[in-house]
Design goal:
three-stranded parallel β-sheet; 21% strand; 8 helices; Rossmann fold; alpha/beta; 230 residues; four-stranded antiparallel β-sheet; Ribulose 1,5 Bisphosphate Carboxylase/Oxygenase; 2 domains
């Protein structure tokens, strides 16, 4: 087992690693044990009792965090000329079409979210190998393929995130920053958890949510008592 650093030992000493805390307590603890010099990201890791290999147990959803992500999300709007003005006014960082498709083809992916229109999706197909692994491919299910590009951009900038269970049955979601106060962290976490509870596949038998942990960049995970949020 790897030796803990001095900071890690100090963090572990501030909470009971064998205890499951209620959401508000866990949010306070995670702030207390975060000691990095930058504004650390706060993340949830939720282990589900699903089999992601089965299409009817694939859990995916979208949620708007009440207090935003705390991150300046860079948005690329791939739109036809008639939608460019709307996208720019809504706050998209990059707006255009063919010139950005060429840049992506060349390996450029310096954005967090891509928003586009149904009529443009055909042009994005060949770029799936570049965009897919980076989680950048627009999807109608997450609201990033739409005729209302302006709303989509505003939603993303306002704290809308999407999540998807990975192949190990875990959902990871970035829910804010360490600079948020504990109540805001708890509110954002609760929004994700409550949304997730509503997405339980009818084919899942037994325990749906097996565990929930909250952590910050380089901090230990703090377990959240499932009963406090279900």
């Amino acid at each position: 087992m790897a030796k803990l650093t001095k900071k890690q030992k100090e963090a572990v000493s501030k909470f009971d690693a064998n205890k499951a805390y209620d959401l508000k307590e866990a949010s306070s603890v995670i702030k207390d044990i975060t000691s990095v010099k930058f504004d650390a990201s706060i993340d949830l890791a939720i282990r589900l009792g699903v089999d992601p290999r089965k299409a009817n147990q694939m859990v995916r959803g979208v949620v708007t965090l009440p207090h935003g992500t705390g991150k300046d999300v860079k948005v690329l709007a791939l739109v036809t000329p008639d939608k460019e003005a709307d996208a720019k006014e809504s706050g998209a960082d990059y707006v255009g079409l063919d010139e950005y498709l060429q840049k992506i083809k060349g390996g450029w992916t310096d954005v967090d979210v891509i928003v586009t229109m149904p009529s443009v999706m055909g042009k994005l197909g060949p770029l799936g190998r570049i965009l897919g692994p980076r989680g950048l491919m627009p999807n109608p299910k997450t609201g990033t393929v739409t005729m209302d590009v302006a709303k989509a951009v505003k939603d993303v900038k306002g704290g809308k995130i999407d999540f998807k269970v990975d192949k190990t049955g875990i959902i990871h979601a970035a829910i804010g920053k360490a600079s948020f106060d504990a109540d805001k962290i708890a509110d954002n976490a609760n929004e994700v958890i409550q949304t997730l509870l509503k997405l339980k596949p009818s084919t899942v038998k037994g325990t749906y949510v097996k565990s929930i942990y909250i952590s910050s960049t380089m901090s230990p995970g703090v377990e959240i008592d499932i009963k406090s949020v279900s």
